[in-house]
Design goal:
Elements: H1 17-32, H2 36-46, E1 58-64, E2 67-74, E3 76-78, E4 83-84, E5 91-92, H3 98-110, H4 136-140, H5 149-155, H6 167-174, H7 193-206, H8 210-222, E6 228-229, E7 244-247, E8 250-253, E9 266-268, H9 270-282, H10 287-293, E10 312-316, E11 319-328, E12 331-338, E13 344-350, H11 357-368, E14 380-381, H12 385-388, E15 393-397, E16 403-407, E17 414-415, E18 418-423, E19 428-430, E20 433-438, E21 447-451, E22 457-464, H13 472-476, E23 480-484, E24 489-496, E25 499-505, E26 508-514, E27 519-521, E28 526-531, E29 537-543, E30 550-555
Antiparallel strand pairs: 1-2, 1-13, 3-4, 5-9, 6-9, 7-8, 10-11, 11-12, 12-13, 14-18, 15-16, 15-22, 16-17, 17-18, 18-19, 19-20, 20-21, 21-22, 23-24, 23-30, 24-25, 25-26, 26-27, 27-28, 28-29, 29-30
Helix pairs in contact: 2-11, 3-7, 3-8, 3-10, 6-7
């Protein structure tokens, strides 16, 4: 029997009657756990902000080996129905689902029907050829270079949750992309596209629909009795918790109204997640399946990244962490296991957008293992602002072309608003990013090099000292019609009230903010224009973290 909430917090003396029905049987279970009351008290402290009856919240599960130490809920699963979150509340996984999709592919590998090094086009022949072979492994490790569908549909004027997208819709969209972000295997760039294609691969090879295959080969054999895919978002699921987003006017429902599964879309519970982790530890699905899922990917440069197959393999406070985060609509989740801490597993699922699920998991680990080493203190020195004055200005990153501003307003050096600290080795720290400045030469501009979390780096080149302030005539030169066959959209670009406006369809207007010459900030993306002979504008480009450069050609 799993532990459930023991008692309401002292400040909540008038709780729904449902709470009373779940308290008594949980007391014995919690007292029998080796961590017992201290773990319950730690969870109560960590999730205190959600422990009320007027907002959403989180479910948490903790296990060591095959022993469940805690399953508990905080906040409400349904604000309309006055239903609290309990341990058995079904919530959505977000991208934690990717490891289940990877497991489905690996089961076919174990069956001898698929090989990870196979060309993905063997199973997906409609996928264009992109020069290098794109393998099944590339699809599952975010190293394919494929563009993410979320940005693509947003640029079509129908962002996620504005339409009920289907697998067929996205297959057509993804296979219409004639270019990718980078040569296959060169970089890590998070994208849901590979896992969308993996779903179709599983269906074509197995001869079953993805939901049936998952149920027969994973969920039922492993006893994941509360787990299923959101293949039809309209399906009634007893015990499903609604998802919410906080607005100025209070909480509003923010559900994922789309039937896209594979990258996400798994309905489940923290208890089923703990069971899943136990099976991964015990390698119930087979050593070859599980070992492959945790084998980290290498880029063509030889750099080993943290991402494996639907899982990230890293470190937390000096101990190995195997996990994944998730975020879909108003759901926020994190599932991790720590093999060096007695096979500890921690699952957190929240139904509030932006809830820091990963931080909650780490806070539970801290409470159980307070003696783990703390991160070393960064060796910083006093910042010599005069020495970095030559670097002030606007910089364009060489991947998705966003503009960052390095300035010294108020006597504080900041990169896009984040204070810069000097490190003793001559480099700099900007938030969680390690940064180096390069002086450039007569042939190369000044640049900023930032190191990503996987050890790769991004170069930002100097573009201008000040923000571009275009005249109406300069904006008018950019106006016109721009065609993207990859999106099947013709954009209208016009000047309105001294601003450049891009419209993918009637009724949708994106107002752009100038950054540097011929470039703009489009909110969640960068927009820039390129010129041909004679300086005439020939194309409009979109760039974002998951779609680096989508080109629309100017048409009459």
């Amino acid at each position: 029997m799993r532990t459930l909430p023991l008692r309401p917090a002292p400040r909540l003396r008038a709780l729904p009657a449902l709470f009373a029905t779940i308290l008594a049987p949980a007391i014995a279970d919690a007292q029998s756990a080796t961590t017992g009351a201290p773990l319950v008290a730690a969870a109560d402290r960590i999730f205190a902000p959600w422990n009320n009856t007027h907002g959403p919240g989180c479910a948490v599960g903790v296990a060591r080996g095959t022993t469940t130490l805690l399953e508990r809920g905080y906040g409400m699963a349904d604000l309309n129905g006055n239903r609290p979150i309990i341990a058995s509340t079904i919530l959505e996984s977000g991208s934690v689902a990717k490891q289940f999709t990877a497991a489905a592919v690996m089961l076919l590998v174990a069956d001898g029907k698929v090989a990870l090094e196979d060309d993905a086009r063997k199973y997906l022949p409609e996928l264009p050829s992109y020069g290098r072979t794109m393998t099944v492994r590339h699809l599952l490790t975010h190293t394919s270079g494929l563009r993410d569908w979320g940005s693509l549909v947003a640029w079509q004027g129908w962002p996620r949750n504005s339409r009920a997208y289907t697998q067929t819709d996205l297959l057509l969209l993804l296979t219409s992309q004639r270019t990718i972000n980078y040569p296959v295997g060169d970089h890590y760039s998070y994208t849901n596209a590979g896992f969308i294609l993996a779903r179709t691969l599983v269906e074509r090879v197995s001869g079953m629909d993805f939901e049936t295959f998952s149920r027969l080969r994973i969920f039922e054999p492993l006893g994941l009795t509360h787990t299923s895919w959101r293949g039809d978002y309209r399906r009634v699921v007893p015990g499903l918790g609604q998802a919410y987003r906080r607005t100025a006017g209070g909480w509003q429902i923010e559900m994922p109204n789309e039937s896209i599964i594979g990258p996400g879309g798994l309905w489940t519970t923290v208890g089923d997640w703990l069971t899943w982790n136990q099976h991964l530890t015990r390698k119930t699905l087979g050593s070859a399946v599980v070992d492959s899922m945790t084998r980290q990917m290498r880029l063509t440069s030889g750099l080993e990244i943290a991402y494996a197959l639907g899982l990230t393999v890293g470190q937390y406070r000096g101990t190995k962490e195997i996990g994944h985060s998730g975020s879909t609509a108003g759901y926020s989740t994190y599932l991790a296991r720590y093999p060096e801490l007695g096979d500890l597993s921690v699952a957190v699922m929240c139904n509030a957008a932006g809830a820091p699920a990963a931080s909650y998991v780490h806070a539970i680990v801290d409470a159980l293992h307070p003696t783990l080493p703390r991160p070393s203190i960064m060796d910083t020195v006093a910042l010599d602002i005069a020495a970095v004055l030559p670097w002030r200005g606007h910089y364009e990153d060489t991947r998705w072309h966003s503009i960052s501003v390095l300035d010294t307003a108020g006597g504080v050096l900041r990169l896009s608003g984040t204070p810069v600290r000097a490190r003793r080795d001559g480099s700099y720290q900007v938030g969680g990013q390690h940064v180096r400045l390069a002086a450039g030469s007569h042939t190369t501009p000044r640049s900023i090099r930032t190191v990503t979390s996987d050890g790769d780096s991004v170069v930002h080149v100097w573009r201008a000292a000040e923000r571009w302030q275009p005249t109406n005539a300069e904006l008018a030169a950019l106006a016109g019609r721009y065609r993207s066959d990859e999106l099947d959209i013709t954009f209208s670009v016009r000047v309105r009230d001294g601003k450049l406006v891009v419209s993918p369809r009637h009724g949708v207007d994106d107002v752009l903010t100038p950054t540097v010459k011929d470039a703009f900030d489009g909110g969640d993306n960068a927009v820039w224009f390129t010129r041909g002979k004679g300086g005439k504008v020939t194309a409009m480009h979109f760039g974002a973290s998951r779609v680096w450069d989508l080109v629309s050609v100017r048409v009459p």
